[in-house]
Amino acid sequence: MAHSPVTSTAARRYAEAVFEIAQRDGTVEQWLNQLDVAAQSVSDASAVRRLEDPSVPFEQRHEAFRGLFKGDMLEPLNNLMGIVLRRRMLQIVPGIAREYRRLYNRQAGIVEATATSAATLEPDEVAALRQRLETMTNKKIELSLAVDPALLGGIQVRMGDLLLDGSVRGRLERLREQITSGTFTH
Q1: 166, 136 in Cβ contact below 8 A?
Q2: Are 116 and 146 in contact (CB under 8 A)?
Q3: Per residue in 90-118, pLDDT tens?
Q4: pLDDT digit string (tens) for 111-140?
Q5: Which end of the chain offers a freer environment for a tag, N or C, measured as fewer CB atoms within 10 Å?
Q6: Max Cα separation, the chain?
Q7: Following DSSP, what letter does each residue of 71-140 receive, concatenated?
Q8: Contact status, residue 104 vs residue 35, Cβ threshold 8 Å
Q9: Dihedral, CA atoms, 125, 131, 135, 136, nearest 10 degrees?
Q10: One-character DSSP codes across 18-40
Q11: How far is CA 131 from CA 66, 125, 143, in A?
């Protein structure tokens, strides 16, 4: 699902506010986990429709959302979800969780990377790739995986603005560019 700039901006603002609260309260890790749960719980469109149904009293909808946490929800998160529910903006929750994780990672010195391969990587390949990236950056890497058969083979890794392209498709495109421009390196 595409995110509008307004939704992204709002998610960032909410995430920055709750990150400050979490730092103040010493609950940074709890927020991280609970925002992930909240984001997961609103990933189902039918659940969102039920939770945002104006024919159901707000307190009932809020209580239903709270029930997803089995009584373990941080009170400020409960308040945030109440605001989001009242405004019928549950679609923003995954963005808040993503932005919060970005703030958390930046503070913890963790670099986010996405590895895209032509086929699913084996667990030992993922571990080796993570180790190599951590050695290369001298930072802890949070690695997301994606599969794109159009790569033909190999792997692409994106870390922020940096793209490491070791894919067969990337090599073929570079070769085509060299042939077209007549610039060969020996």
Answers
A1: no
A2: yes
A3: 889 999 999 999 999 989 889 999 999 98
A4: 999 999 988 999 999 999 999 999 988 989
A5: C
A6: 72
A7: T---HHHHHHHHHHHHTT-GGGHHHHHHHHHHHHHHHHTEEEEEEEESSPPPHHHHHHHHHHHHHHHTSE
A8: no
A9: 40
A10: HHHHHHHHT-HHHHHHHHHHHHH
A11: 39, 10, 10
Q: What is the mean pLDDT of residues 35-50?
A: 86
Q: Determine the Cα–Cα distance for residues 136 and 51; give it in Å rounded to an integer.
A: 45
Whose CA is closest to 112, among 181, 159, 52?
159
Q: For the stretch 44-76, what's the b/e string if a residue is b when 16 or more beta carbons lie within 10 angstroms of its beta carbon?
A: eeeebeebbeeeeeeeebbeebbebbeeebbeb
* 77 close to 31: Cβ distance less than 8 angstroms: yes
Per DSSP, the three-state class of 181 is helix
Paired tokens of 174? 């570079």
Instruction: Quote the tokens at residue 101.
Output: 């994780």
Residue 23 has pLDDT above 90, yes or no: yes
Local confidence band at 184 (pLDDT 50, 70, 90 cut-offs)? low
Which residues partner with 106 through β-bridges? none
